[in-house]
Amino acid sequence: MRVDLFDFDLPPENIALRPARPRDAAKLLHVAGGAPLTDHIVRDLPTLLRAGDVLVFNDTRVIPAQLEGRRGEARIGATLHKRLDLRRWQAFIRNGKRLKDGDTIDFGAEVSATAEARHEDGSWTLFFPGEEPVEVLLERAGRMPLPPYIAGKRETDAQDRSDYQTMFAQKDGAVAAPTAALHFTPELMAALAQAGIAHETLTLHVGAGTFLPVKADDTADHQMHAEWGRIEPETAARLNAVRAAGGRIIAVGTTSLRLLESAADEARVIHPFEGDTAIFITPGYTFKAIDGLMTNFHLPKSTLFMLVSALMGLDTMQAAYAHAIAGGYRFYSYGDSSLLLP
């Protein structure tokens, strides 16, 4: 499909630079197949779902994966993208033309890395020497990797250390937050449980590739970056039991959805999963694992807007986004939410 089909105009004032407070006070647009659009807040979620449904969250934890350093006189920026082993990460490099194999980048705070190999997409393998875990080094020298559309408008600060983590964050490894879950609070989770709505967690370490624009003119020519994920056998079994009992599986965030779809077979059975996924979902895709999605509002011409258009239909999502823009909904990572039920 032509990528320009997924374009739309977004006024800059609709881009959120800070999250709603409290988190569950964010707006929520309910988009149901064939029904009128309705405006809510996230706190209304227990009334929009049914007893027996299950919400699936991503429990990845964002690490301070953005580094600023020097190789000699050259300033080098690095955004870690994907762990390769205990001491090696693949990273997108700013000013990477100034690097060659074997160069050392000094990131300050007694943290350095060796540029080991350049990949075809321009990223590099960085090796972090020493005995301290890389996560410890990043806590000392790194910053939270806010998306470019936020970082370009203000500096990352101490508040982002908590704002850019979900309440489910447990497993270190993401360089972008699973932002749909930023809206949840302990109070909302208690209300959902009281309404008979269960929840499960899986792990997908979101990579920096989620921020990359689609540069191809046709979706067939776009290559997704792989991300590592895991669904435990017990989790898969419980999710299959929910569906067998007539409940719906609602992914919270496109990261949860992509991993669930990667783990499901044609019979709509979800299997345990551990490994990389580079699934790219566009209109025409047949969903096998999920019955709905809660997600924020995405960038024009992004793979994530393509995904929600595959779930609900491109015309429906264009109308929904036009409604959201006109209604003052806030977009992107710190923005408002939508509940999509085809």
From TrEMBL:
InterPro entries: QueA, QueA_dom1, QueA_dom2, QueA_sf. Keywords: Cytoplasm, Glycosyltransferase, Queuosine biosynthesis, S-adenosyl-L-methionine, Transferase. GO terms for molecular function: S-adenosylmethionine:tRNA ribosyltransferase-isomerase activity. It is found in: Cytoplasm. Transmembrane segments: none annotated. It catalyses: 7-aminomethyl-7-carbaguanosine(34) in tRNA + S-adenosyl-L-methionine = epoxyqueuosine(34) in tRNA + adenine + L-methionine + 2 H(+). It comes from Novosphingobium pokkalii. Transfers and isomerizes the ribose moiety from AdoMet to the 7-aminomethyl group of 7-deazaguanine (preQ1-tRNA) to give epoxyqueuosine (oQ-tRNA). The keyword Metal-binding does not apply. Pathway: tRNA modification; tRNA-queuosine biosynthesis. This is S-adenosylmethionine:tRNA ribosyltransferase-isomerase. Its main location: cytoplasm.
